[in-house]
Amino acid sequence: MAKHLTSKQTLQSGRASGASKSSATSSSNVANADDSSLMQDSDALNLTDHFLIAMPSMLDPIFGGTVIYICEHNAKGAMGLVINKPTDLTLSGLFDRIDLKLEIIPGSHPKGKDPVMFGGPVQDDRGFVLHAPIGGFSSTLKVTDQIAFTTSRDILEAVAAGEAPERLLVSIGYAGWSAGQLEQEISANGWLTVPADMRILFDVPLEERFFEAMKLLGIDPIMLSSEAGHA
């Protein structure tokens, strides 16, 4: 299982971190929400708005046991967020660290106790937010008609003001793959894939997300062999 980040690692803008030791690393070409979205290749495998579910054979300390939501996938690579690995930092603690003043009584904020997630090992000094509905934030990648991926501070300001999107997942870092890398890992039975479910993405308790994602495939994780192929 991936180690949780410490509360010293804050959500902020900054330079990209060094390459991850994991196989799911980022190239400089992997999409950043600050850049325009890359053109999709209709003839290639497109796992945007899908879950990646780690196979039992994956013993990687970062990605073992994870569910990753893919935000963008095209011929140049893929990027997504781990959705079931919390850090020890809450949103309330995050607001304190980045000098955002709560406009409502501290301690009563409806999302103040929500954990900040470990989204992946790439740019783990930066914040990334999945949310629905999309809204009008300044640096947003539209994933679907309902879900967006935002990196700009204005979404956190909206959260602090009690004006957050209805559904929200805040993370530090993301997972990224260079061109063809994710496809190779899937072919090697590293991941199961399934179309994403918003309920699992935003509403299901963190500790249940892996099992619920497996259920989308009709699979009992306990019975799943490490030799099983990808879906």
Sheet having the most strands? 10 strands, mixed
Residue fraction in strands: 25-35%
Helix content: 10-25%
The end-to-end distance, rounded to whole angstroms, is: 23 Å
Give the ordered list of helices and strands.
EEEEHEEEEHEHEHH
Number of distinct beta strands: 10
By secondary-structure content and strand pairing, the structural class works out as: alpha+beta
Unreliable stretches (pLDDT < 50, length at least 5) are: 1-42, 226-231
What is the 3D form? globular
Q: Roughly what is the average pLDDT, rounded to an integer?
A: 77
Cα gyration radius (Å): 17 Å
Total helical elements: 5
List keywords for this structure.
disordered N terminus, 231 residues, globular, 15% helix, alpha+beta, disordered C terminus
List the topology elements.
Elements: E1 50-54, E2 67-74, E3 77-82, E4 86-90, H1 91-97, E5 115-118, E6 122-132, E7 140-142, E8 148-150, H2 154-160, E9 167-178, H3 181-187, E10 191-195, H4 198-203, H5 209-215
Parallel strand pairs: 5-9
Antiparallel strand pairs: 1-2, 1-10, 2-3, 3-9, 4-5, 6-8, 6-9, 7-8
Would you write up a description of this structure?
Mean pLDDT is 77; it is low at 1-42 and 226-231. The relative contact order is 0.23. It is built from 5 helices and 10 strands; from the N terminus they run E-E-E-E-H-E-E-E-E-H-E-H-E-H-H. With 231 residues, it is of the alpha+beta class. The radius of gyration is 17 Å and the shape is globular. Strand 7 (140-142) and strand 8 (148-150) form a beta hairpin. Strands 1, 2, 3, 4, 5, 6, 7, 8, 9 and 10 form a 10-stranded mixed sheet that branches.
